[in-house]
UniProtKB/TrEMBL annotation, chain A:
Keywords: Membrane, Transmembrane, Transmembrane helix
Record has Transmembrane helix as a keyword: yes
Boundaries of every NADH:quinone oxidoreductase/Mrp antiporter transmembrane domain copy: 149-415
Primary subcellular site in the record, as a coarse category: membrane
Chain segments annotated as transmembrane: 41-65, 85-112, 132-157, 195-214, 226-246, 258-278, 290-311, 350-372, 384-402, 432-454, 474-498, 522-545, 628-648
Stored Pfam families: Proton_antipo_M (PF00361), Proton_antipo_N (PF00662)
Topological relation to the membrane, as annotated: Multi-pass membrane protein
Keyword Transmembrane helix: yes
Cellular localisation: Endomembrane system; Membrane
Family matches, as NCBIfam families: NDH_I_L
Organism: Micromonospora gifhornensis
UniProt protein name: NADH dehydrogenase subunit L
Record-annotated NADH-Ubiquinone oxidoreductase (complex I) chain 5 N-terminal domain positions: 75-117
UniProtKB/TrEMBL annotation, chain B:
Membrane topology type: Multi-pass membrane protein
Signal peptide: none
Main location: membrane
Subcellular location(s) per record: Cell membrane
Claim: Repeat is one of the keywords in the record: no
UniProt EC number: 7.1.1.-
Family the UniProt entry places it in: Belongs to the complex I subunit 6 family.
Transmembrane segments: 6-24, 31-49, 55-79, 91-113, 133-158
Reactions mediated catalytically: a quinone + NADH + 5 H(+)(in) = a quinol + NAD(+) + 4 H(+)(out)
Record region (Disordered): 164-199
EC main group: translocase
Protein name as annotated: NADH-quinone oxidoreductase subunit J
UniProtKB/TrEMBL annotation, chain C:
Pfam families: Oxidored_q2
Gene (name only): nuoK1
Function: NDH-1 shuttles electrons from NADH, via FMN and iron-sulfur (Fe-S) centers, to quinones in the respiratory chain. The immediate electron acceptor for the enzyme in this species is believed to be a menaquinone. Couples the redox reaction to proton translocation (for every two electrons transferred, four hydrogen ions are translocated across the cytoplasmic membrane), and thus conserves the redox energy in a proton gradient.
Cellular location(s): Cell membrane; Membrane
Protein topology in the membrane: Multi-pass membrane protein
Top-rank lineage group of the source organism: Bacteria
Transmembrane stretches, start-end: 6-22, 29-48, 60-83
Protein name: NADH-quinone oxidoreductase subunit K
């Protein structure tokens, strides 16, 4: 095992240890104040140390990695199937690992300041910090395991542990009534996808005879197997990466603390699906059917998220729907056949979405509410936050030269290439679909980003009772730290070391399918870049114009009758409830009734039947003389008849 | 058809006919008397079949003792002298089973013997039957006498008036002898005496 | 002598006895049915004595004698039981004896009205 693979193997281990040790800490006692609480301090130390250690290891890995490396050992053998323990490292894995560790560290530091007793809390609120920090560490370990894993089963382990940590963390605030339901919904919806994921992995592993990713990629599966496995894996991706129709959990997951939303539901876990596809890209590249399905899902998700974000009042929900929409961009890039573009957008999105969530958390912390209708005019009272959020929203909308512009441009250019020139493994109509949806999405994204900015920071303050101010250092520094990559990461897409890291993930085979990227670098600067720019200006301008008319009113009022439709995300939650939840609960009820009446009833019925039979026999036994005599003589007659007949035969 | 056959036929008809009346009449006492006729006819058949000793024993014991006992029982259980309506249970199981048994047996026996003839053996006189009983069958004979003894003892024990009485009831009886009408005790004693005397 | 005649007579008597046992409610009449059955058996035994040459001569008649003795013993004990039943219940109907209730106390003779003397 070389240095790089050792670093890769240690990457998940460090936060795992921090997490496990942290779970052993006692949760803070009720009523303990935050500065005298040793358990909390130990938890903070462990969490920050775990994330910092992971970041150091990830940076070291990135620096020392000069070629894709792999190392594995056989772990279990099931007859002819092998499950291995190992790492598979390349540039993309290293970069994603750095992103994950960085965001995790930012979130750990931020949480220290966020989960303290603030001016709006009761005196004896208990944030239960030790399990919180430990679960974040565990989550980080699981995500890093997904990133570096060289074996599909290990990837699945990390995948599932992420799911459970997400569930635990969403439900962290026990006093919030909607948190448990949101956690359950997140878990169950992603679980539905995870079943498909598991089946897809099983199919691939059985077909290849081994679960090692290198073996699976090298094996020649049949087209049927590949298509089936690809579609099943897409189910898992749809669940984890909140694609239509398994997207319904993400907005409700905002019931969790804001740092968790930043870490899990913006930067890392939701990106895991996209990452998994890039890991197994040669398989997907060979199945245009699966890519077509992915393209449709991506386009629908993109537009659905964008439109739903336009009408939300909760600031976190706007950002959640925005995440859904941006994930649609990433999966759209994959659908047209460009993993580098998807990964580039993944990395920039991790930066600016984490920034946006943490900044939103600062706003919520200062104002005491997440409803934009009760914010306003915060630009003067919270200038640092305002500028950070402005950069984040600009990146989101795709304003040059911020990072989002370059990566979104990459996606749109890849889609354009697939549509107009038929490049890439997917059919051309998929390219058209993704490209047009992406363009419309640019306009809508700009619209809602501008709306968010205006509603929150401009206009007359609608919260006269609180005195919002810029956040304390613990909250401010992570936000500032994330602003840097949110602004500048896109420039790394120019030809250079960064771009080469991402590009090495594609097959180096010259006659292979094009990855729709320029020969070096990730940036397209063709004349068609003007189209999204124009749409951005259009969207932002419309929002600003609508706001100008009445600075206290919601620009979303311009949506008119469509507003409730968008706010309810096209009632898809209700559709899911009717099509899935109600039949399932009815089935569960029926199963329970069947268990009680039929199964238990059979058992009790056997008892009762035996008792009745016994009672009947007892009654027969107790029969008075006449009945007994009849029985005896009738029996004698029957025996005599039988004897005669048998004797006669 | 010889004379023996005619006699057997006639006596058999009488026996079956009176048997029908025994089981179907509504007069209790008449049932007992029809039983006498039936048993007498059967005794006659025994005579025709050269079973002399058995025939006379039948008359002695069955007609003389058993039927008398039955009539005593009829009297002691306050049987009505005239017709009574509540003597019978539902008829169909009885008819089914009785008919099945009787006709089945008859069919079996007809099938076995058809219209064959046999020679009547030497008569079963007292001397000859006595030889057999006290030579080959002496052991069952002795056992039978023990059985008779136990039946006798059992009958006496069973007919004691103090059987089945609970302690409270006997205490009540002992405490209030004057309340009981004088007619009961003689009847009871007569009943037990009558039963004991019939043996 | 045609043995089928006494045989058929006996069979019919037996059937009548069974009918009587199953049909009658009065215990004494049930015992009369039993007597009919026993007589039928006796008749068959006597007739068998003529149709079969047994190893021991006249064994059919000897058996018939024994059956008569048994019948006498049986009727004695049986009637004792019937009379005891009458003392306890003032009724000898065989279908009025429930087997799952506690036995009643003896009914004093004076409480029972004599039938026919109403």
């Amino acid at each position: 095992m070389s240095t790089t693979t050792l670093l890769g193997a240690l990457l998940p281990v460090v936060p795992l240890v921090a997490g496990l040790v942290g779970l052993l800490l006692p949760p803070a006692a009720r009523g303990a104040t935050t500065d005298r609480d040793t358990s909390r301090r130990a938890a903070i130390a462990l969490g920050v140390a775990g994330a910092a250690g992971a970041l150091v290891l990830a940076v070291a890995l990135l620096v020392t990695l000069d070629a894709p490396a792999e190392s594995s050992t056989t772990w279990i053998r099931f007859g002819e199937l092998t499950v291995t323990l190992g790492v598979r490292l390349d540039g993309a894995a290293a970069l994603v690992a750095v992103a994950v560790a960085a965001v995790a560290l930012a979130v750990q530091v931020y949480s220290v300041g966020y989960l303290t007793r603030g001016p709006h809390d009761d005196t004896d609120v208990d944030h239960r910090y030790p399990p919180y920090a430990a679960q974040i560490s565990l989550f980080t370990a699981a995500m890093l395991l997904v990133v570096v894993s060289g074996d599909l089963i290990m990837l699945l382990v990390g995948w599932e542990v992420m799911g459970i940590c997400s569930y635990l963390l969403i439900a962290h605030d026990r006093w919030l009534p909607q948190a448990p339901a949101a956690a359950q919904k997140a878990f169950l919806v992603t679980r539905v996808g995870d079943v498909g994921f598991l089946l897809g992995i099983a199919l691939l592993g059985v077909s290849a005879g081994s679960f090692r990713i290198a073996d699976v990629l090298a094996h020649d599966h049949g087209t049927g197997t590949l298509t089936a496995a690809g579609l099943l894996l897409l189910a898992g991706v749809a669940g984890k990466s909140a694609q239509f129709p398994l997207h319904t959990w993400l907005p409700d997951a905002m019931a969790g603390p804001t740092p968790i939303s930043a870490l899990i539901h913006a930067a890392t876990m939701v990106a895991a699906g996209v990452y998994a596809i890039t890991r197994l890209w040669p398989l997907f590249e060979a199945t245009p059917t699966v890519l077509a399905v992915l393209g449709v899902m991506a386009s629908v998700t993109l537009l659905l998220g964008a439109f739903a974000a336009t009408a939300q009042d909760d600031i976190k929900r706007v950002l959640a729907w925005s995440t859904v929409s941006q994930l649609g961009y990433m999966t759209g890039a994959l659908a047209v056949g460009s993993p580098p573009a998807a990964l580039f957008h993944l990395l920039t999105h991790a930066a600016f979405k984490a920034l946006l969530f943490l900044a939103a958390g600062v706003v919520i912390h200062a104002v005491g509410t997440a409803a934009m209708s009760r914010m306003g005019g915060l630009r003067h009272s919270m200038p640092v936050t305002f500028w950070c959020m402005l950069i984040g929203l600009g990146a989101l909308a795709g304003l040059p030269p911020l990072s989002g512009f370059w990566s979104k441009e990459g996606v749109l250019a890849a889609a354009e290439g697939a549509a107009l020139h038929g490049d890439g493994p997917a059919p051309a109509w998929v390219g058209w679909l993704v490209w047009l949806a992406g363009l419309v999405g640019v306009a809508v994204t700009a619209w809602y980003a501008t709306r968010l900015l205006l509603r929150t920071f401009f206009g007359a303050p609608r919260t006269p009772l609180t005195h919002p101010h810029d956040p304390p250092a613990l909250l401010r520094w992570p936000v500032l730290a994330l602003t840097v990559p949110a602004a500048l990461l896109g420039l790394a897409g120019f030809p250079g070391w960064f771009a080469s890291q991402l590009q090495r993930t594609t097959p180096s085979d010259a006659e292979g399918v094009s990855d729709l990227m320029p020969p070096d670098g990730l940036i397209h600067l063709t004349p068609t870049v003007l189209l999204p720019l124009a749409l951005l200006l259009l969207g932002a301008g419309l929002a600003w114009a609508g706001w100008r008319r009445d600075t206290a009113a919601d620009p979303a009022a311009a949506l008119g009758p469509l507003r409730p439709v968008f706010a309810g995300a096209f009632r898809l939650d209700d559709v899911q409830h009717t099509l899935v939840v109600r039949p399932t609960t009815a089935l569960a009820r029926a199963a329970r009734v069947a268990d009680e009446r039929v199964v238990d009833g059979a058992v009790t019925g056997t008892g009762r039947g035996a008792g009745a039979l016994g009672g009947g026999l007892a009654a027969l036994h107790r029969s008075a003389l006449p009945r007994a005599v009849v029985a005896v003589l009738a029996g004698a007659l029957l025996i005599a008849l039988a004897a005669t007949l048998i004797g006669a035969m | 058809m010889t004379g023996v056959d005619v006699l057997l036929l006639a006596l058999g008809a009488v026996a079956v006919g009176s048997g029908v009346f025994v089981v179907s009449t509504r007069h209790l006492v008449r049932a007992g008397l029809y039983l006498v006729v039936c048993l007498g006819a059967v005794a006659g058949m025994y005579l025709v079949l050269t079973a002399e000793l058995v025939a006379w024993v039948q008359v002695l014991i069955y007609v003389g003792a058993v039927v008398v006992l039955l009539l005593f029982a009829v009297m002691l259980t306050r049987a009505p002298i005239g017709a009574s309506d509540d003597l019978d249970r539902p008829g169909w199981p009885a008819a089914l089973i009785g008919g099945g048994v009787g006709l089945g047996l008859a069919a079996l026996l007809i099938d076995a013997f058809r219209w064959t003839t046999v020679e009547l053996p030497e008569a079963g006189t007292a001397e000859r039957i006595g030889e057999q009983v006290f030579a080959s069958w002496v052991l069952p004979f002795e056992v039978l006498s023990i059985l008779l003894l136990s039946a006798l003892v059992g009958a006496i024990v069973l007919s004691r008036p103090d059987i089945g009485r609970t302690p409270g009831d006997s205490a009540a009886r002992d405490r209030t002898p004057g309340d009981r009408p004088a007619g009961d005790e003689p009847a009871e004693r007569a009943g037990s005496g009558g039963e004991g005397g019939a043996r | 002598m045609r043995p089928v005649i006494p045989y058929v007579t006996a069979a019919l008597l037996f059937g009548l006895g069974v009918y009587g046992v199953l049909r009658r409610r009065n215990a004494v009449l049930v015992l009369m049915g039993v007597e009919l059955m026993l007589n039928a058996v006796n008749l068959i035994l006597i007739t068998a004595d003529t149709t079969t040459r047994a190893l021991l001569p006249h064994s059919g008649q000897v058996f018939a004698l024994f059956v008569i003795v048994l019948a006498a013993a049986e009727i004695g004990v049986g009637l004792a039981i019937v009379l005891q039943l009458y003392r306890m219940r003032a009724s000898v109907a065989v279908d009025e004896v429930p087997l799952d209730t506690a036995p009643l106390d003896e009914v004093p003779m004076d409480k029972v009205p004599m039938e026919g003397q109403r």
